[in-house]
């Protein structure tokens, strides 16, 4: 969930949230999912695949929030849970101030969006000298996700709507710098009365005979473009019995529940790099690019880039295997000493998803991986 891009480095601080986003153009009591009318089979959603020539991005479109028709692309992030959106152009400008939303009482409804008085912050940064803090409130609304060739409408989605984001010197960022669509089953932002937000997909009921969850097709490299190419059917919402069977090719790992944090998608794994072996939990994260990170407390320095042609192999405790070799431009991998860096887990970034499939089963709290 650490997002490291060429223009900005963002690192997890609150619970296990590490998210950053760009745009194109604890718990009220857990919320009971209120969803669209079930469809007869799995629903397919497309993603935009973008490549700046320095880093790749996966983006998902959101076209309606409450009664507001919008056109925003969110970072599609397997490394966090919950939708995070700037209030700019979503709420009237008169409601948005530098110190909070301007309304009285416990909640108000504007443009079909219920904004509560429950506040929270999300904090990002490489270290204490590069902290970025996002301030906002818990909100609920009907949200339409997806653009061309398929979309879903979640009738009452809890999400984090923010009024400002500032750097360590108190300077405000521009609108929608931190919009994120986190699809993991963890609770990344919590509030004083125990309310929380988590994966928007977890609130979607795929219908009779299907299991609540989703899978991501292997992305390949041919569709990534500088302007962003829309690729249909990348996401499948609703898992079949065949998807979950042992013959599907997916290797399933049981996720662990953490009180107040949900089911974070960390998998116990053994990593071998250049003849060194380390046991570590791994996050498979579409939101981290262009680097991956290996945590090894035997590492000499806090952060160092593995040399070109380094060999890395990964074996999860459930038996999934994956290997790659670093090059000058691809599979760039940092070695970190977690004692010195404060990092808690290793990360395989977006390049993992180019050649592998990924699945989250929300009903049984399992994560599936498959070599393509």
CATH topology of the largest domain: Cathepsin D, subunit A, domain 1
Identify the CATH architecture of the largest domain: Beta Barrel
Backbone CA Rg:
20 Å
Helix content: under 10%
Largest sheet: 6 strands, mixed, barrel
Just give the CATH class of the largest domain.
Answer: Mainly Beta
Strand content: over 45%
Compute the average pLDDT.
Answer: 87
Which outline best applies?
Answer: globular
Secondary-structure content class: mainly beta
Number of domains: 2
In the predicted model, the low-confidence regions spanning at least 5 consecutive residues are 1-38
**Total number of helices:** 3
Can you list the strand order of the major beta sheet? Answer: 4-5-13-6-12-11
How far apart the termini lie comes to 23 Å
Strands, total number:
31
Structure description:
The chain is mainly beta and 372 residues long. The protein has two domains: 3-203, Cathepsin D, subunit A, domain 1 (Beta Barrel), CATH 2.40.70; 262-371, Acid Proteases (Cathepsin D, subunit A, domain 1). The chain is 3% helix and 49% strand. The strands form seven sheets. Strands 4-5-13-6-12-11 form a six-stranded mixed β-barrel. A five-stranded mixed sheet has the order 27-26-22-23-29, with no helix packed on it. Strands 14-21-20 form a three-stranded antiparallel sheet, with no helix packed on it. The protein starts with a strand and ends with a strand. The relative contact order is 0.19. Residues 1-38 have low confidence and may be disordered.
């Amino acid at each position: 969930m650490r997002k490291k891009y060429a223009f900005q480095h963002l690192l997890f601080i609150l619970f296990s949230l590490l998210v950053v986003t760009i745009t194109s153009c604890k718990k009220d009591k857990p919320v009971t999912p209120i969803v669209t009318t079930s469809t007869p089979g799995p629903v397919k959603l497309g993603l935009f695949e973008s490549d700046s020539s320095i880093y790749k991005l996966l983006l998902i479109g959101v076209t309606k929030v409450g009664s507001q028709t919008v056109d925003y692309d969110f970072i599609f992030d397997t490394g966090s849970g919950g939708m995070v959106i700037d209030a700019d152009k979503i709420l009237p400008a008169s409601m948005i101030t530098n110190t909070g939303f301007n309304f009285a009482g416990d909640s108000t409804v504007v443009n079909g969006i219920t904004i509560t008085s429950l506040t929270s912050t999300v904090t990002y940064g490489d270290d204490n000298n590069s902290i970025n803090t996002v301030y906002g409130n818990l909100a609920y609304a009907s949200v339409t996700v997806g653009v061309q060739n398929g979309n879903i409408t979640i009738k009452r989605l809890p999400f984090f709507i923010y009024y400002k984001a500032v750097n360590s010197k108190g300077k405000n960022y521009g609108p929608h710098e931190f919009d994120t669509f986190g699809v993991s089953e963890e609770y990344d932002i919590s509030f004083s009365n125990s309310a929380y937000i988590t994966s928007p997909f977890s609130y979607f009921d795929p219908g009779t005979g299907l299991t609540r969850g989703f899978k991501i097709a292997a992305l390949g490299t041919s569709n990534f473009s500088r302007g962003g190419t829309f690729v249909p059917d990348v996401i499948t919402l609703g898992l079949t019995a065949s998807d979950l069977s042992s013959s599907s090719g997916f290797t399933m790992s049981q996720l662990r529940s953490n009180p107040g944090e949900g089911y974070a998608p960390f998998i116990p794994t053994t990593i071998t790099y250049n003849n060194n072996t380390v046991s570590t939990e791994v996050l498979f994260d579409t939101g981290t690019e262009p680097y991956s990170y290996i945590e090894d407390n035997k590492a000499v320095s806090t952060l160092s880039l593995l040399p070109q042609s380094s060999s890395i192999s990964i074996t999860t405790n459930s038996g999934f295997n994956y290997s790659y070799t670093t090059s000058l431009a691809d599979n760039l991998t940092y070695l970190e000493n977690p004692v010195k860096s404060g990092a808690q887990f290793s990360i395989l970034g977006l390049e993992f998803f180019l050649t592998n499939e990924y699945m989250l089963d929300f009903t049984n709290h399992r994560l599936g991986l498959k070599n393509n």
